[in-house]
Amino acid sequence: MTRNQPNPDDRSDNVEKLQNMVQNTLGNIAKAEESLAYADSSTQEQQIQAKNQRRRESIDAMREEMKDEAAAQNGQGQNNQYQ
Q1: In angstroms, rounded to a whole number, what is the distance separating the alpha carbons of residues 59 and 54?
Q2: Structure pTM?
Q3: Theoretical Cys-Cys bridge with 71: which of 5, 42, 58, 76, CB 3.0 to 4.6 Å?
Q4: Cα angle 64-66-69, degrees, rounded to a multiple of 5
Q5: Mean pLDDT of all residues in the chain?
Q6: Range in 16-20, 39-43, 51-55, 67-71 with the lowest mean pLDDT
Q7: In sequence order, which residues have a C-beta less than 8 Å from that of residue 78 and are 6 or more positions away?
């Protein structure tokens, strides 16, 4: 039986991946906003608006994570609790 070895922690392209995720999410928001014109009911409109709000919150979180990753790549790391 072979043992599963964990993959090494390669964070070198995390900022790039996060940027792509932000761009994709912004595209999804734009498409959803366009679809509001074709919503069948106010309930459907509210659902689309609520989902877009969650997407905006996710984008905020991804941008914060991008800052953390960029700092880690620059050797600054995150707030060192042990100083």
Answers
A1: 9
A2: 0.77
A3: 76
A4: 115
A5: 88
A6: 67-71
A7: 68, 71, 72
Among candidates 58, 81, 79, 74, which has minimal Cα distance to 12?
A: 74
DSSP structure class, residue 72? H
Q: What is the DSSP string of 10-41?
A: --TTHHHHHHHHHHHHHHHHHHHHHHGGG-SS
8 A C-beta contact, residue 68 and residue 61: no
Q: Is 25 exposed, middle or buried (0-12, 13-18, 19+ CB in 10 A)?
A: middle
Residue pair 67/61 in contact (Cβ under 8 Å)? The answer is no
> How far apart are alpha carbons 24 and 57 in whole angstroms?
14
